[in-house]
Amino acid sequence: MIIGKDIHPERKIYYIGALIIEILKKVPDTTFDFFDIYQKLNKSEKVTIKLFTLTLDWLFLLGAISRDKGNIKKCF
């Protein structure tokens, strides 16, 4: 296994994606507002809006989330 030399793994999309999935798991709702998730994430980990959006795109490509009339819908 190749180990990266990155000293800031908390700035990687897979780490931020895991935090977003944990936030989505805790709430019984299936649809969420973009800024609600962003605010909840920023309480635990300060993230730029650009990195947050990139992480949501990555989660969408993985099939973990989808769109639902302008909201974010969890697919798990």
What would you say about this model in short?
This protein has 76 residues and is an alpha+beta fold. The chain is 51% helix and 13% strand. The chain has three helices and three strands; from the N terminus they run αβααββ.
In words, what does this structure look like?
This protein has 76 residues and is α+β, with helices and mostly antiparallel strands. Helix content is 51%, strand content 13%. The protein has three helices and three strands; from the N terminus they run H-E-H-H-E-E. The chain has helices at residues 13-26, 34-44, 49-62, and strands at residues 31-32, 65-68, 71-74. Helix 1 (13-26) packs across helix 3 (49-62). The longest helix has 14 residues, at 13-26. It is globular and about 40 Å long.
Largest sheet: 3 strands, antiparallel
- Class per helix and strand makeup: alpha+beta
Radius of gyration: 13 Å
β-sheet strand percentage: 5-15%
3D shape: globular
Distance between the termini: 29 Å
The amount of helix comes to 40-55%
DSSP, total strands: 3
As residue ranges, the low-confidence spans are: none
Mean pLDDT: 88
Output the strand order for the largest sheet.
Answer: 1-3-2
Give the helices and strands as they follow along the chain. HEHHEE
- What is the tally of helical segments? 3
